[in-house]
Amino acid sequence: MDLLGEGPAVALVTGQRPSGTPRPIYLTTFLTLVTALLAALIIAPDSASAAGVSDVRTVHTNQETEGDGPRVPDIISTSADNAVVAWREGTLPGRVDEGYIRYSYTTDGGAKWSHPKVLAQETSEYLWHYVTLYQVGDELFAYLGRTPVLDDSETDGDGNNDNGLPINDIVVKRSTDQGHTWQDYAVDMPLDDPATPADEGLGNLAFAGRPLQLANGDHVMPYWASGRENGVLYSTDLKKWVARPAIPDPNKYMGGEPQLTVSQDDPNKLIMVARSNYAVSKVSAVTATSDNGGQSWTDWALDSNVPSNDSKVFFTTDSAGRYLTIANTSLDASAYRKVLNYKVKSPGKAWAAAKLFADGPADDPTPAGTGAGWDTYPMADEYAPGKFFVVWEHDTSAIKVSRLDISDT
Questions:
Q1: Rounded to 10 degrees, what is the CA torsion of 28, 34, 35, 40?
Q2: Would you give the distance in Å from CA 153 to the centre of its chain?
Q3: Taking a C-beta distance cutoff of 8 angstroms, is the pair 251, 262 a contact?
Q4: In this structure, are residues 386 and 318 in contact, taking their beta carbons and an 8 Å threshold?
Q5: Residue 136 is part of a domain; what is its CATH number?
Q6: CB of 104 within 8 A of CB of 84?
Q7: Which of 10-24, 85-99, 189-203, 315-329 has the lowest mean pLDDT?
Q8: Is the peptide bond before 166 cis (omega within 30 degrees of 0)?
Q9: Is residue 3 domain-resident?
Q10: pLDDT at residue 254, rounded to an integer
Q11: For the chain, N or C: smaller number of CB within 10 Å?
Q12: What is the dihedral of CA 146, 76, 201, 124, to 10 degrees?
């Protein structure tokens, strides 16, 4: 079956070994994994014996920003000992979704983390909205959304950019030493320039989920853009990216911060998962599927098995074919984004019940009283079969990392 019209292919996606070395996921391999997993479940110990959440560490704390603080982190692991975390650090009181980008790495499995370094500095002209990480072989890539310091289109009339929009450039950094140092990497993105009348591409193009490599070596990256338009960018060389058609949204679910993974039932099918419009659903994420590498999609549809509580939903398929999702779930307005839970679905089985992932102290430690007291915006990366490093933001004043073991589920 020629999935992409570019020659024979027997599986849609190239997976990633827990060690960080890429390998193809072929249909026969996938079925073998499923068979082995189901056989193992028959003799596996009770799920209560699983390690679950462990080794919680604070990578970085900043209680003095009086603003957005350290937020929206991402993590990539290149082995059980080595991982790198990147995040946005807010710097200006009253201004959200903007700052500069910092990172920290570990070489001892997360016991200790390096002093934070600057990945992208703010200047008198621009700030940064987001950072998303991607591993291809021995290379790591960081995708950064840039935003101007000034914006005279906002209604408050102060001339400042107070919300991290518009996105007026996307800058990419590459690392060849497991995220310890980074260099500029030129790319061509389908981003519309708000300073010109021409239509160059997608407005406010943003990334919040992990890209995937297709079986033919090409790449797809989940995006969201102005108007809550969602889809994938496609690239053959990691240099030039083109936008494929957006996911149809006739019911105005308005998905956001989409996550991209491969179906556990069909390695030739992609699944997109996103937070839903809070006015439409306060409990469920939306999902869509594609069987041609993101060239077309089913309509967005609510999925009652995947929670969404007006915040980012992490969703992936691990090396054994299990789904893992981590998300905020509380419907209590006073507990907005306060608690993270995780759920697992093994191939051929129903979703397991949600389990607690993080519920840090609600007391605000910031002297100015600007902390949010929440645990939210998780991202994760698998370093061994069923074992993940997970990063999330706590209180808007700390970046935290832990291990999560679902191998016994």
A1: 150
A2: 30
A3: no
A4: yes
A5: 2.120.10.10
A6: yes
A7: 10-24
A8: yes
A9: no
A10: 96
A11: N
A12: 10
- Number of domains present in the structure of the chain: 1
Amino acid at 276: S
- Amino acid letter for position 232: V
Kindly state the DSSP code that residue 247 receives in the 8-state scheme. Answer: P
Provide the residue range defining the domain that includes 320: 13-405
User: What is the C-alpha to C-alpha distance for residues 107 and 27, in angstroms, rounded to an integer?
Assistant: 35
Q: Which of 201, 174, 168, 204 is nearest to 187 (CA)?
A: 174
Of 115, 112, 110, the residue nearest 54 (C-alpha): 110
Asked whether residue 1 is assigned to any structural domain, the reply reads no
Mean pLDDT value of segment 308-327: 96
Two structure tokens written together for 59: 């990578």
Token digits for 310? 């007006």
pLDDT in tens, 140-191: 999 999 999 999 999 888 999 999 999 999 999 999 999 999 999 999 999 9
Mean pLDDT of 334-342: 87
DSSP assignment string, 292-360: STTSS-PPPEEEEEEE-SSS--EEEE-TTS-EEEEEE----GGGTTT-EEEEEE-TTSPPPPPEEEE--
Q: Is pLDDT at 200 greater than 60 in this prediction?
A: yes
Rounded to whole angstroms, the Cα distance separating 160 from 151 reads 5
- pLDDT on residue 13: 55
Is the per-residue pLDDT at 319 higher than 80? yes
